[in-house]
Write the structure tokens for this entry.
Amino acid sequence: MKENVLIDTHAHLTDEKFAQDKEKIITNAMGNGLVGIINMGDTMQSSKACVSLASEYKICYAGIGVHPEEAYDMHDDDFDSIIKMSKNNKVVCIGEIGLDYYWEKDQEKRALQKRIFVQQLAIAKQLNLPVCVHNREAHRDTLEIIKNEGKGVQGVMHCFSGSMEMARELLKLDWYIGVDGPLTFKNAAKLPEIVKEFPLDRILVETDCPYMAPVPMRGKRNEPAFVKFVAEKLAELKGLSFETVAEKTTANARALYRKLNAV
Ligand code: NI
């Protein structure tokens, strides 16, 4: 088995799909060369769960934040809670935050998503923490907010689904793109071409588990150990060895998520 070090930079082990066998899943991740799993919050409740999972398992770290689809019930004191929680030394970023226009067609609700996104970016800036951004069919607004309200905040566009132009814009801002299962899919469209051109030192590997398992596990429940299939595909596209890609993407994760180095 490969002994290289990998970090799954975007997982959801607090999802109910892992309720029965989390321990086994984490052991399997370690057996597959993982040295880190960053679990991202999507609600206040799951953010808290990510922090407690990180205190329970050395390999786990946490992102805290509220996902756009969950943003409508956010209260003012939730922002204070995020600030308090962020002091934990295993909280590495504010995430996942962003915009989702695929599921939300209502203009007023989209405006609310934007407001919550901007407020969480402001927290990241205030705390000097990076962000993990979810963007689905909201490319233009997401980029505009990152450039304006998010000026000075560094982050990753997770599960990148944009164009080459958008990737280039992110590069100019010193941002990263996150790639996961879809990179390995036959219908991956333009993503492989973008990844070939995009500098390796700006790419993070992730699973977004339990969903979107990469080939050859497509259709199954995804888990952090499967991040190796994403790294393998990335190595193939870049014409590099798996070892090089594992090493570089892990160094990238440590460069963006600086608190990974502190513990
Ligand atoms: Ni996610």
The chain has nine helices and eight strands. Residues 167 and 198 are 8 Å apart (CA to CA). The chain has a mean pLDDT of 95.
